[in-house]
Amino acid sequence: MKLEGKSAIITGGSLGIGQVTALLFANEGANVLITGRTESTLVEAAELAKDSPGSIEYLVSDVSKEEDCKEAVEHAIKLFGKIDILFNNAGVLPLSITHETSIEDWDQVFAINVRGTFMMSKFSIPHMIEQGGGTIINNSSILGIKAIPGTAAYNSTKGAVSQLTRSMALEYGANGIRVNAINPGTTLTPMVQAFLDNSPPELDAYLKGLQPITGHLGRFATPEEMAHAVLFLCDSENVAYMTGAELSVDGGWIAN
After folding, report:
1. Which residues have a catalytic role annotated?
2. Which of 94, 112, 144, 229 suits a disulfide with 158, CB 3.0-4.6 Å?
3. pLDDT at 253
């Protein structure tokens, strides 16, 4: 088992990429704390690991709130005694063109996608320093590199997450902490399905001529494929020299 004896926090762990990654980690022997805002889906996600060699615990938590982030980290330390892996996965995807985006929506997507990633890292890093190292993986996006219309707020947050990833990698490498990001392409999660079902007209017109939305492999990605990319980045033996990097898992979108 690749993660036997390891402990992890996964934000946004009740659905989509977060849920599948949590189960993969538990199946690889890790003890995982998942966080999210909806208790019912957290309970369902934790139940998936009942026969796994590892475990999934859950905590209702909102990454946009400072006290919730502090509590999540403290809860993980109380449960496991350490934090080997932090997967900053929580995110939201509002749909609107720039001038129609409300100030409230703009602030919310930054609070969750960027501020949440910052705060969970901020409160986890001192524990990682004390224990001699750790791994942080941030869920960025191919849209942090290549923009599409109708998602200006989301695109902007993912560019910020990518820069935060590089900054933390430079700051904490000497402490044995590796920081990397994944850049998923279009992955069939509940969030992305809602995006495809409710895209604004400007985006619909753009997407009709955009092959890379399904990747150059002719299909959407699965959450399982993203989970295995995250697992790869957690390999502190065979990928120990990899930090400050972005792993694009996008079916060739960025190559276009």
Report:
1. 154
2. 144
3. 87
Taking only the tens place, the pLDDT of each residue in 25-41 is: 999 999 999 999 999 99
> Which of 7-21, 62-76, 206-220 bottoms out in mean pLDDT, i.e. has the lowest?
206-220
Task: Using the predicted structure, report yes or no on whether residue 180 has a pLDDT greater than 80.
Answer: yes
Q: 156: which 2 tokens?
A: 């902007």
Q: Using CA atoms, how far apart are residues 231 and 229, in angstroms rounded to an integer?
A: 5
Burial class, 111, CB count within 10 angstroms (exposed 0-12 / middle 13-18 / buried 19+) = middle
Q: What is the DSSP letter of 231?
A: H
Dihedral, CA atoms, 228, 145, 238, 49, nearest 10 degrees? -20
Contact 31, 55 (CB under 8 A): yes
Spatial CB neighbours of 111, under 8 Å, sequence gap ≥ 6: 64
2 three-class SS: coil
Separation of CA 182 from chain center: 8
Average pLDDT, the chain: 92
How far is 203 from 251, CA to CA, in rounded Å? 20
